Amino acid sequence: MLSQVYCSGSQPFRQRLLPWVQSTALSRSHRVQPSAIRHVRSWSNIPFITVPLNRTHGKSFAHRSELKHAKRIVVKLGSAVVTRGDECGLALGRLASIVEQVSVLQNQGREMMLVTSGAVAFGKQRLRHEILLSQSVRQALHSGQNQLKEMAIPVLEARACAAAGQSGLMALYEAMFTQYSICAAQILVTNLDFHDEQKRRNLNGTLHELLRMNIVPIVNTNDAVVPPAEPNSDLQGVNVISVKDNDSLAARLAVEMKTDLLIVLSDVEGLFDSPPGSDDAKLIDIFYPGDQQSVTFGTKSRVGMGGMEAKVKAALWALQGGTSVVIANGTHPKVSGHVITDIVEGKKVGTFFSEVKPAGPTVEQQGEMARSGGRMLATLEPEQRAEIIHHLADLLTDQRDEILLANKKDLEEAEGRLAGPLLKRLNLSTSKLNSLAIGLRQIAASSQDSVGRVLRRTRIAKNLELEQVTVPIGVLLVIFESRPDCLPQVAALAIASGNGLLLKGGKEATHSNRILHLLAQEALSIHGVKEAIQLVNTREEVEDLCRLDKMIDLIIPRGSSQLVRDIQKAAKGIPVMGHSEGICHMYVDSEASVDKVTRLVRDSKCEYPAACNALETLLIHRDLLRTPLFDQIIDMLRVEQVKIHAGPKFASYLTFSPSEVKSLRTEYGDLELCIEVVDSVQEAIDHIHKYGSSHTDVIVTENEKTAEFFLQHVDSACVFWNASTRFSDGYRFGLGAEVGISTSRIHARGPVGLEGLLTTKWLLRGQDHVVSDFSEHGSLKYLHENLPVPQRNTN
To answer: Which terms in the GO cellular component ontology are assigned (predicted)?
Structure first.
């Protein structure tokens, strides 16, 4: 076996070796002990924290979410990843990004190994340069002048290119890893090194020793001397594999070193069910042994020795040996900068090879079922959709005992893990179920003419009529936390609007959500559309769901402001309906009624402080300071045990003030309230526009002119006069229920009920009409006459 070790880093080797020796808690068994979970190392110029990586090798990971526990990882860089598009030279920016990711994982306490191509391409670049330089010198000497003739570049032999490129490739890796204070070592192997028992033991020992010393081994086939691959029965079993390309080398190395994870980077996103680029090609998220017959392999990449078929065979061989495998794209500029770390974090990237098939459908299959089921649902008669909702309402009361029993299990499991407000949201009761049933019947009554309602009719020309009609949005993804009562509400709204629905509930409500979903599907079954509503029970991360832009048309988050912000950030190409914050204001005008103010403030702040429509900032007109009205407000808040935070102006009026607010843009979600002083209604409006969240804002006054000025000038989704902020709710608005409150300015705003889940399409009915007939010299003229619209049934 030919091997070289290059140690990079500016520190003397002895000085750099000491931390490695001290860190041998990683040990030859390559498992971190529990006591080392939060151990912070400082030898690197980039501080990092080791992660819990306790796992006994022997069986591959069953789910992507388990990949974060991978301790020993092999990253295979294909030729298409390492080389430039012209196949002559290296993609330096891409390589730098890969080295950075490998370094980050190494600095987390993992053991990283690289199997890299690139020596041939790097050597080809060097040899072509030398040949051109040599030819130009000879021509200049021969002709005696500087004008050179066009020179032909001979075909370069791959082994010579590899010999010329190996040292340069390693020097490049050495320089890059040095930036992260990481030492790298090069090991060149051939097939014989695995088949000769002595050489195999030597290779194994060398790799283990390098890993023990926290060095990243960089492994490559010794292409300068490697013989052509011999035909044999390789990839047939764990003990038989021929190292004939870097795919098979990476698989053999992964199994030999008992690696937890093998990441194969190529120039395609992963494995497709048909050749990538074809119209029907779909990326396969999880690939199982035995699925090969359902896959059509395309041609191999533009460079390199193997194609996708070789990668799949190598991946399955490694999987059989106990190593998990992911094949992903390492060349895409938008993802290559974090593809390796994303895979290790368990994100849905590339194709994951697993031996464990899930019991139910994948989330992609659920999305397709929701799409087809939703389209069938939309074709039902309004009475049929209403019948489904009425049946679901009946089931909520008829199956009350089973629902409450499941909810009791959730509450028992959540005890001590969830905060009080979340436990309150999780709790279901008989009164809640009765209220839900009433709300569902309201939705059923209002859904009679929701889908297919004509909004506009226009006669374009004689016998050419245009209609604009309401239609479902498509497939909705609703993500909710600790709110099992949300499930039947959203299900009823989806049914009434003819939308397919994917539901992702919090794990704290697993039992409640399961039975409520079963009841929803039971109701849907009476008209054969059971699959229109799907509950996602797989281990899909929310961020992964937000990337399914080809399956989901609208995301609706129901939960904390942090959840909404995370989803808005993660959503790629899918609109998100919701609000990230509920910073609701109440302005108490100088002409406010003493009797009304304390009732409105108490109800808005204290009735349910965790709600998004609870009062967070109280603006008081300056003239009310040191008046009986102001004293009544403060006394009431003290009785209700509300903690007061003083705004800057309010604090300046007081000798001994409450704690000054840290930010005027705060959603407390608890019995806490900010009080600030303003000089006028205009100043109150300016404050709301600067610090509010465009959710719900209220004025308390007896002056109608002032109130109307406030109502017209405050730019929020809900603006009230002498009413509690808590009225900002779909049920209280008479919508039956809501999917959420939107502060968006596009489509739906405020409490979003049935109307907010519809969009429109245009229907044009003609008789052999063509546009050319309406040209300057055509026979027809546009009429554009408005036609009467059928009256809506409001009963």
So the answer is: mitochondrial matrix
